Amino acid sequence: MKMTVTLVLTLVVIGLLAGFLSGLIGVGGGIIMVPMFLIFLGFTQHQAQGLSLAVLLPPVTFMAVYNYHQAGAIDWRFALIVSAVFIIGGFIGSKVALSIDQQTLKKVFGGILLLIAAKLILGK
């Protein structure tokens, strides 16, 4: 896939949103990034999972990422962009989460899970 300005901006948005949601509701990889890579970038499931793991690489997923890398399912340029902005999003998301009451935060978490599930179930 050719690296374009639009692609880089999409990767930045995915990284920020996934990092923000990770800090806000405690999720990021499989629940947030994988669906966004599938929906917004048209990645295969293997590519989306591999890239998600690559973003979370140190030190949690090193061996799993190694397997995806060996299979050629990771574009490291994408992983570096998303992981860099994921850190920023995570910081901001955690600040917001700490300022929201528990009941509201539970509703936000559940709503995001429902939206993602509906898109995956009803999408192509």
Kindly describe this structure.
This protein is mostly helical and 124 residues long. The chain has helices at 5-25, 29-41, 45-55, 57-70, 76-98, 102-122. Helix 3 runs antiparallel to helix 4 (57-70). The longest helix has 23 residues, at 76-98. It is globular.
Write the layout of secondary structure elements.
Layout: H1 5-25, H2 29-41, H3 45-55, H4 57-70, H5 76-98, H6 102-122
Helix pairs in contact: 1-2, 1-5, 2-3, 3-4, 3-5
Shape: globular
Strand content: under 5%
Q: Name the poorly predicted regions.
A: none
Radius of gyration: 14 Å
Number of helices: 6
Largest sheet: none
Distance between the termini: 21 Å
User: Given the helix and strand composition, which structural class is it?
Assistant: mainly alpha
What is the averaged pLDDT score? 86
- The protein's oligomeric status is single chain
Helical residue percent? over 70%
Please report the total strand number as a whole number: 0
Sequence of secondary-structure elements? HHHHHH
Fill in the keyword field for this structure.
single chain; 124 residues; mainly alpha
Summarize the structure.
The chain has 124 residues and is mainly α. 83% of the residues lie in helices and 0% in strands. The protein has helices spanning 5-25, 29-41, 45-55, 57-70, 76-98, 102-122.
